[in-house]
Amino acid sequence: MNPLLFTGGAMGAVLLLLALRVPIAFALGLGASGGLFLYYAAAGGGFDRLAGLTPTLSLLGSVPFEFIHDYPMSMIPLFIGLGHVAHHAGITPELFHALRIWFARVPGGLAMASIVGCGGFSAVSGSSVACASAMGRITVPEMLRYRYDPGLATGAVAAGGTLGSLIPPSLLFVIYAIFTEQSVRALFLAGILPGLLSLAGYLLTTLIWVKRRPQAAPRSDERPTRREKWRALSGIWPATLLFGVIIGGIYGGWFTPTEAAAVSLALAILIGLARRRLDWHSLLESLRETALQTTTIFVIAIGAKLFVVLVSLTQVAPLLLDALQSAGVSMVTVLVAVVLLYLLLGMFLDSIGILVLTLPFTVPLVQGYGLDLVWFGVVVIKLLEIGLITPPVGLNVFVVKSVAPASVSLETVFRGVGWFLILDFVVLALILLFPQLSLLLPRLE
Q1: Helix, strand, or coil here: 379?
Q2: Residue 23: how many CB atoms within 10 A of its CB?
């Protein structure tokens, strides 16, 4: 039998299981296990079930163990823990309250403060969903209290929450680095300028929205004094310190990314305890949430790693690359097809699921055409950002809806993110057309 049939059949089985609402971790694991069993059973030219069972069981025992015990994987629970501790210690809520005072007299100031706050939260947590959930609880009721348009109030947080995908430390960058064997440090640096560009674009989108419809964001009557502004600004030093430790430590060569994650987590705990904002109950709750989220990600990653082993054994990627190049398919055509694939999948699957499902196929393709994998990583993560707010699934939209008042409908949230989606496509086009936006900082090392 053609080895390509095993991978194609396994992928078909995964898609069928996903359509039946089987969690992606188990869909990937079952599809990969079935494909590996059939591949080994037919390896001798016939079909021997016993011959296929032994090596398959051996891989099912060794691959997960070796993968989870890989040193870079320890970054994932450390960065997740940092986000939860920072939230429970009041580090991220203080950031929003300081920004709220500084943006008090700016048109759409609360929405802008929410977006910048999401960017700050992202710089500590690395998780878009956690960012949207935490900031949504704080900012959406505040904006609605000031009679903001519900679409603007929820859309700003749902879109701002996606910044956790690009602004380091990003969990998606860590997972991408592990599966593609790229430098986490280079990917973190590559995400800074596109992340800041997205942040600036969201602020501009909010300003245009409010200028066109002033009633969407009534002006606040608050007039904070200069002393109040500087007092509020003093509350953001913990978040600034943590971001400086992560990015400054990595860029300055003082820490590896894993060491930066460990040091920043320990620092966040010490800050919370010293300021009496973090008690033992909330610390244990942070650890419990970290364990649950880490387990979910690890199970998905194990299923994906088994699928990568199957793709490697059957040599699907090189054969597909040879076929495309023999047919004279251009690099631009392949890149457009990859972009459309991620946009399509983003409408139905979560970010981690899309990432681990597609990387075994897309990375060898773009690498074969000579494209930079660090730049491609930024492109992929930006596409996953867009998927977080794209209907019908748009995970961040559902997260914000879950924490918003019951009077705010799901349609209202999707309507609100529509304006920000336009900006996202503009930023995506800039990243595709000008790779230097992503590669400038990594190449300065």
Answers
A1: helix
A2: 15
Provide the residue-wise pLDDT of the chain in tens; the chain has 445 residues.
Answer: 566 777 888 888 988 988 888 888 898 889 989 988 888 887 755 565 666 788 888 888 898 888 888 888 888 888 888 888 888 888 877 777 788 788 877 888 889 988 988 887 776 766 677 778 778 888 888 888 888 999 999 999 999 888 888 888 888 898 899 889 899 889 999 999 999 999 999 999 999 999 999 898 887 777 777 777 787 777 788 888 888 888 888 888 888 888 988 999 999 999 999 888 888 899 999 899 889 888 888 888 888 888 888 888 888 777 777 888 788 888 899 899 999 999 888 887 778 888 888 888 898 888 888 899 999 999 999 999 898 888 877 888 888 888 788 888 889 999 999 989 999 999 999 999 999 999 998 887 6
CB 175 within 8 A of CB 188: no
> Given its phi and psi angles, is residue 424 left (phi above 0), alpha (psi -120 to 50 degrees) or beta?
alpha
Q: Please state, in angstroms and rounded to a whole number, the distance separating the CA atoms of residues 374 and 115.
A: 26
Helix (H) or strand (E) holding 349: none
- CB of 294 closer than 8 Å to CB of 76: yes
Amino acid letter for position 443: R
Report DSSP state, residue 167. S
Report how far apart, in Å, the C-alpha atoms of 8 and of each of 175, 300, 339, 361 are.
24, 20, 21, 12
CA 151 – CA 165 distance, rounded (Å): 22
Q: Which two tokens stand for residue 87?
A: 């939230």
One-letter amino acid identity for 69?
A: H
Q: Do 438 and 193 meet the contact criterion of CB atoms below 8 Å apart?
A: yes
**285, two tokens:** 């709750």
